Amino acid sequence: MTESEQSESAENPVSLDNAELYFNRDLSILAFNQRVLALADDPRVPLLERLRFLTIVSSNLDEFFEVRMAG
Predict the structure, then answer these.
(1) What is the pTM of this model?
(2) Within the chain, what is the greatest distance between any pair of CA atoms?
């Protein structure tokens, strides 16, 4: 970081209350599962690996709905 960047950041501190700085945990989990599911649908991936990806998604979604949506 250059000296001018340091002085500029000191003059304009970032407010940590800004919601745009943070990820939505639920959407992040669902996006991850979507990426894993896409790997399970990829015909270039060996069959047993595709099955493993499906079991990962299934387990993750079970936990997601038990923990996140139950409360």
Answers:
(1) 0.68
(2) 56
Quote the pLDDT of residue 58.
97
42 phi, psi to nearest 5 deg: -80, 115
C-alpha span between 24 and 4 (Å, rounded): 33
Phi and psi dihedrals of 30, rounded to 5? -65, -35
User: What DSSP line would sit under 42-69, residue for residue?
Assistant: -TTS-HHHHHHHHHHHHHHHHHHHHHTT
Which backbone phi and psi does 14 adopt, to 5 degrees?
Answer: -85, 130
Chunked mean pLDDT (size 10), the chain, 71 residues: 63 78 86 96 97 97 87 65
Residue 22 token pair: 């943070």
